[in-house]
Design brief:
Low-confidence stretches: 86-90, 111-118, 434-441
Shape: rod-shaped
Order of helices and strands: HHHHHEEEEHHHEHEEHEEHHHEE
Keywords: Kinase, Membrane, Phosphoprotein, Transferase, Transmembrane, Transmembrane helix, Two-component regulatory system
Protein name: histidine kinase
Strand content: 5-15%
Number of strands: 11
Largest sheet: 5 strands, mixed
InterPro entries: HAMP_dom, HATPase_C_sf, HATPase_dom, His_kinase_dom, HisK_dim/P_dom, HisK_dim/P_sf, Sig_transdc_His_kin-like_C, TCS_sensor_his_kinase
Mean pLDDT: 78
GO molecular function: phosphorelay sensor kinase activity
Subcellular location: Membrane
Radius of gyration: 53 Å
Number of helices: 13
Length: 481
């Protein structure tokens, strides 16, 4: 079963929070228990010191241990009074201890009582020994387990207080405090989990909303709805993703519009010469127009226009696909340009156009290029100037170079091109004036082919206003090293 991104984000945030809360809870419990145990041990140490001091004082006043050894009740009272926080009578099991032997300590108590207690009280873990380590209150079998603390009187050891191993005693209030703290920690952890779940739900919603919106928009885009756009609500990665999506949708929309315009332009360009051919052929068939050489020449001109259009379409399709063949070699582009100028010289002369070639190169500039494709590039540009420059005009070809780049500029005289049209000249089927281009036999594909040829040679091409009053095309090629 597929889960939504919101559920995954929610579970991720919640699981992360649960791990953090659980870790904090365990650490706080460990820290509290450790601190509490250290405090209890410190309190027990103080109580032992107080008991040792009280026993020393007793020895001083009584002159020995004999009176205490004969008075078990006093021994128990001294043990109870050593805890300054106790304000109660001895526990029930201490009363039971009075029934046992006088010197037997710790007393035997019920196993149930011992099992119910979490800690062994200090009274049940101490024994009193004389200076010679004979037992005053204690058990012979427990002597090896004792930790002996000396009792001194006037600089002399007069006895020992023996301490059996075991956990320090805790008062009921202490235990209740620990229980309350434990419960408080549990409630705090539970509250943090609930708050974390709400926060995770909110974050999952806030982060999942733009992602879900992008997914819905992507589906719309896949259905061909290229006008869809996403709101950019933040400057983070999600905002950048929405911005990139909008740019992609805009590019696809432009591509779709270009495709439709391309199909419409191709249909229009093919329909025009075919309609003319059909009209002339029907006129010949109906006898409206006589079948003579002039009629054949007119038909041939229409066929040639159609042939040029299909050839341009074919060349453009090949260049778009990168399928144009390029046989590159080290060549001098100026020689190719001079040969093309010589081939078109009669047409320039027939239109009374003055052509000037300026070679301002410092040294010979060689290109790693295809001579045939460069010739196709130059002829397209020169024919463009030939077709659209008024009779008696001027064409200047400027060739220059530096250490890395060869620059070729082809500028002609009036008429010029509007500023808004300069950037669109290399778009296929674009004409500044549709009727004028068609009258000159062009379909608006020549400059598109030129752009692809220049790109195949890692160069750049741009159109700008000419100082002569017409159009200037500037081409830059990287020089071969």
């Amino acid at each position: 079963m597929r889960q939504s991104i919101r559920i995954k984000l929610f579970l991720t945030f919640l699981l992360t929070t649960l791990l953090v809360v659980a870790g904090m809870y365990l650490f706080m419990r460990w820290s509290l228990d450790r601190g509490f145990n250290e405090w209890v041990e410190s309190r027990q140490h103080e109580r032992v010191e107080d008991l040792v001091e009280a026993l020393g004082d007793y020895y001083d006043h009584a002159g020995g241990w004999a009176p205490l050894a004969a008075n078990k009740r006093q021994w128990i009272e001294m043990l109870v009074q050593s805890d300054n926080r106790r304000h109660r009578h001895p526990a029930h099991w201490m009363h039971q201890a009075m029934a046992g032997p006088v010197d037997r300590w710790p007393p035997d108590v019920d196993e149930d009582i011992e099992r119910k207690r979490r800690f062994i009280p200090l009274e049940m873990r101490v024994m009193l020994l004389a200076a010679d380590r004979s037992i005053i209150f204690g058990r012979q079998e427990l002597l090896p387990e004792l930790t002996l603390i000396p009792i001194e009187h006037r600089g002399q050891v007069v006895g020992y207080l023996g301490l059996l191993p075991g956990r320090a005693d805790n008062q009921i209030g202490d235990l209740r405090f620990m229980e309350r703290q434990t419960q408080a920690f549990a409630w705090i952890a539970l509250l943090m989990i609930v708050l974390s779940a709400l926060l995770a739900l909110l974050l999952a919603y806030l982060l999942g909303r733009p992602i879900k919106r992008i997914a819905v928009a992507a589906k719309q885009l896949g259905k061909g709805i290229y006008t869809i756009r996403l709101p950019v609500e933040s400057g983070d990665e999600l905002g950048q993703l929405a911005l990139d999506f909008n740019e992609m949708a805009a590019a696809l929309e432009q591509s779709e519009q270009a495709r439709r315009r391309w199909v419409a332009d191709i249909s229009h360009e093919l329909r025009t010469p075919l309609s003319v051919l059909r009209g002339e052929l029907e006129a010949l068939q109906d006898g409206i127009r006589p079948m003579n050489p002039e009629a054949v020449d007119s038909l041939l001109a229409d066929v040639m226009r159609l042939n040029r259009l299909t050839e341009d379409l074919y060349q453009l399709a090949l260049s778009d696909q990168g399928a144009l063949t390029y046989r590159k070699a080290m060549i001098d582009p100026l020689q190719v340009l001079q040969a093309d100028l010589a081939a078109l010289a009669p047409e320039f002369a027939a239109k009374q156009l003055q052509v000037e070639l300026l070679d301002r190169r410092q040294t010979a500039a060689n290109l790693y290029a295809d001579a045939d494709r460069l010739s196709q590039l130059f002829r397209n540009l020169l024919k463009n100037s030939l077709n659209y420059t008024d009779s008696g005009g001027r064409i200047v070809i400027d060739v220059s170079s530096d250490t890395d780049t060869l620059v070729i500029g082809i500028a002609d005289s009036a008429p010029g091109v509007g500023v808004n049209d300069l950037a669109k000249l290399f778009e296929r089927f674009y004409r500044v004036e549709s009727s004028r281009s068609r009258n000159h036999g062009g379909a608006g594909l020549g400059l598109s082919i030129c752009s692809n040829i220049v790109a195949a040679h890692n160069g750049s091409i741009r159109a700008q206003a000419s100082e002569l009053g017409g159009l200037a095309i500037v081409i830059k090629f990287p020089l071969a090293k």
